[in-house]
Amino acid sequence: MKARFHLPDFSGNFKLNLLFADMLKNRPDFFREGVEIASFYGVFPPCLWNGGRTQGGMTDKNFIKGVIKTFNDRGIPLRYTFTNMVLEKKHLADDRCNMILNLSNNGLNEAIVASPVLEDYLRRNYPKFKLTSSTCKRLNTEEALLAELEKDYHIVVLDYDFNNRFDVLEKLPRKNDIELLVNACCEPECPRRIEHYKAIGAQQIAYCEHIRKYPNLPFDIEKHDPQNFRACPYSQRGVFDIRKLKTHITPDDIWEKYIPMGFEQFKIEGRTASQLNVIETYMYYMAKPECRDEARFFLLKLMENTGVLKFN
Amino acid sequence: MKARFHLPGFASHYEFNLIFAQMIHDCPQYFREGVEVASVYGTFPPAIWNGGRFQYGQCNKDFIKTVIKNFNDRGIPLRFTFTNPMLEKKHLSDKFCNMIMHYADNGMNEVIVASPLLEEYIRRNYPNYKITSSTCKRITEPEKLYDELDKDYHIVVIDYDLNNKFDILEKIKDKKKCELLVNACCNPGCKRRSDHYRGIGAEQIVYAEYLKSGAKGDFDFSDYPEYAQYIDPAFTECKCMSRTIFNIKDLSTHISPDDIWGKYIPMGFEQFKIEGRSLELLNLTEHYMYYMVKPELRDEARMLLFAQLIRQGIMSTKF
């Protein structure tokens, strides 16, 4: 039995994820049956091709190399969220994104894609990267999903409006290549979701251009959010708030329903969540319920002992 | 139904306890039935009268006044752990300890005592203080415990080797006057416990005198060969105090929260002491969550507390 988890943010949550990966290795007794880290996903900001969540920040080449090596040495792939929906041909030659791909072009690492333009570019220029089809595509009809599963993707992340719709899920082929986003914070069936992903993509491009031109000036997000998506309250939902959503997949359902059906890939979102939320979400999904308090304490102590967490 | 908890470290865990007390006040829905803060106990270092746990550090007058005011304004007494069993007459006039007693002498605050000498001094000079008899006295014989309960104490903290000995506990007449230390980290029945308390008392005295002398450099108790008997590896290398909440649950002296609500409160007990003056905050958080929060809301309550600690700048993460 495998429960392969894709975890958020190899860059922003670098230290937390590293400690967590080592904890999973050293204390398997804390965890539910079959838990593995399938990948850490995210980007090294600033990253033009990034999608799904706008990501600010700056990372340098040494950090990028360090992160790739640290996780790859542990056998864990990085998976780039290159899911910007509004990329154009002119963006494909971006120095920084290409540099990142070159630095990690070792056959272990992966990319998630939503834009056909970028997907085609990656397939031609970086054939070693395994490709995941993104949930950002909003393939929310059965026909579109079945057609996607016939394509040459390593993994297809399901539109999470299909979560818990067992009538549809039961009929799907390639269940072990399907990834389920288990802890979505978005409103189920939100009619604006694809517009939101597009707006995030445009915002990401604007951010990268801003950083290039004015590296020392703050980015005015207001100017680059004409539809006022930042007022959407759902992105602020925490680990306890999302449990009532019909798209929510509980850990008990993972082990009692999804894994017995043949699914084995699960994505935990959280690239822009608070660190506390991420820790709590990891504990909720992956630790045995009876060990959750001790496992959380163990992780927090590791963080404290390594200076990641401090009491002032 | 009352579950009155005495919490550790009004100075060492000042902000933490203040935030936690506020959380009980603002979010009672997270807590088990009847949970109240009966007191926050501890000392202002370097108080020479302190016992039970050696406490480093120095507090100034402003801090002392602020701590007293902030807890007392919320209706929470401070309770001084003046349980040093090694005190002599000459220590009674200690200026720092008497200053603390003066500042907090408003009828609300309390003192725990173990030394008859200090107890008598406090009763004479500070009659406003409610007095608690300390577990440091090591009263393990049932008859002696029943005698202690007949004395004029506000509370008697039971020797925790009697925890869960329901045949003895049942016979206590005034159960509301008893306080049970629920999360002891020490080995049950430890034969050296009294000696350990004496060693801690001696170290506290030497430390206070060391500071008073204006000496420079780090204080090291092992520089005082006259106390060699207390610098024994049995004490200095005792690992019991580094036990976490997860390591103490199997000790025979451990009182679980389910037993508090399922056995002790129905018997008539209502005062419970959580030790932890020298614990680090992650461990202490887990003790508080374990004992006082409803089990089904523990994860959410912990998250709320941590979020508040981050907001107040007490905790920070650097990923």
Work out the helix count of chain B.
12
Q: In terms of quaternary structure, what is this?
A: heterodimer
Report the strand count of chain A. Answer: 9
Strand content of chain A: 5-15%
The biggest beta sheet of chain B, please?
A: 8 strands, parallel, barrel
Question: In terms of structural class, how would the helical and strand content of chain B be classed?
Answer: alpha/beta
Largest interface: A-B, 30 and 25 residues
Shape of chain A: globular
Keywords:
heterodimer; A: 312 residues; alpha/beta; eight-stranded parallel β-barrel; 37% helix; 13% strand; B: 319 residues; 12 helices; 9 strands
Topology diagram in text:
The complex is a heterodimer of chains A (312) and B (319).
Chain A: E1 3-8, H1 14-26, E2 35-42, H2 61-73, E3 78-82, H3 95-103, E4 110-113, H4 116-125, E5 130-133, H5 142-149, E6 155-157, H6 166-169, E7 178-181, H7 193-213, H8 251-261, E8 265-267, H9 275-286, H10 292-305, E9 309-311
Helix pairs in contact in A: 1-10, 9-10
Chain B: E1 3-8, H1 14-26, E2 35-42, H2 61-73, E3 78-82, H3 95-103, E4 110-113, H4 116-125, E5 130-133, H5 142-150, E6 155-157, H6 166-170, E7 178-181, H7 193-212, H8 233-236, H9 245-248, H10 257-267, E8 271-273, H11 281-292, H12 298-311, E9 315-317
Parallel strand pairs in B: 1-2, 1-8, 2-3, 3-4, 4-5, 5-6, 6-7, 7-8
